[in-house]
Every structure is written in structure tokens, then in C-alpha cells.
Amino acid sequence: MKLYIKNMVCIRCQMVVKAELEKIGLPYTYVKIGEADIIGNVESEQLKQLGLALKKSGLILMDDKKSILVEKVKSAIIELVHYTEEQIKVNLSDYLSEKLNYDYTYLANLFSEVKGITIEKFYLTHKIEKVKELIVYDELNLTEIAYKMHYSSVAHLSNQFKKFTGLTPSHFKKLKNKRRDTLEDV
Questions:
Q1: pTM passes above 0.85
Q2: Percent of the chain with pLDDT over 90
Q3: Closest by CA position to 39, among listed 21, 13, 63
């Protein structure tokens, strides 16, 4: 039996779900972002107990088919941006259609209706958040970040970064360093 879980965005979320499943005594084959595959049937009391336990961590069990599909779109994008190194060989719409076995127009309309933003904006927002994270880590220069995040050029990355944040990547980096210096002086 598959369970679909809203707000699962990282490995820590997966650990929380695994721990709660083990507490309740529900064996599983896997837990990944957005879902868990439970072995056998789940009693309604166990499901209720799991739902309450997950809610304490900000996670929500879902049973509405449209919400589940929207979460699958979100999970696919989060996995693609944050946990996959290789670039997709097709455009995002084809990638999501193939991965989820739905027409992209349907996915896009449903996503916009439920989330209030387009799939593309959600995807780009996550790309920019990942770029911010890489800038803060300070292990890669902008050229390396642009390459890693599959931008055609540093200029393209910089333009998109400024459009979303109002700052250039280098100004963002200076602000981060300025904050760090201030904290070190405290």
C-alpha cells in the first residue's frame, strides 16, 4: 500500500517517516520524498496514529488524488534540482509527463490551480534556492555553479538570480560575508 505524504522535502523528512512507521510497527519497502510503500494492509487506527505523529513534524498524510498528484510534481522537481547531478535530456514538461504518466497540460493546470503558481516558476524558484545554497557554501565559483545547475552561461544565471531575488549573485555573496563578519565580531 502506498502512502502519500505532503511536505516531505529532504532526507530528514524521510528519516522522520521511517521512525514513525517503525514505532507503529508498519513494515515498509521504501520511503522516498513524498511517499512510502507499506507492506500489507494498514488498519485505520494505525493510519490515524501515523497521521497524528507525522503532523507533529509538519508532514501530512494525503488521500485526495489531485493533492497527491501535485505533491508528486513537487517531489519530482525537488529531487531533480536538489538531489540529481545529471541534466535531464528533455525539457521539463516532457520529463514530468514521462515520470508521472500524465499529460503536461493537465499537470500544469492542476498545479497552478492548487498551488497558485506555475510549475515553471516552482522549478526556477528551487533552482535559485539551490544556487543560493551553493553560493553560501562558497566551495564553487559562479562559473562552476552555472555549469552544475545547467545554466547556459554565468550571465543567464545572474539574470535569473537577479529577477528572482533582486540581487546579483556577487552582491548576495557579499551580504552573506558581511553577515558572517558581523556574527564573528559578536
A1: no
A2: 66
A3: 21
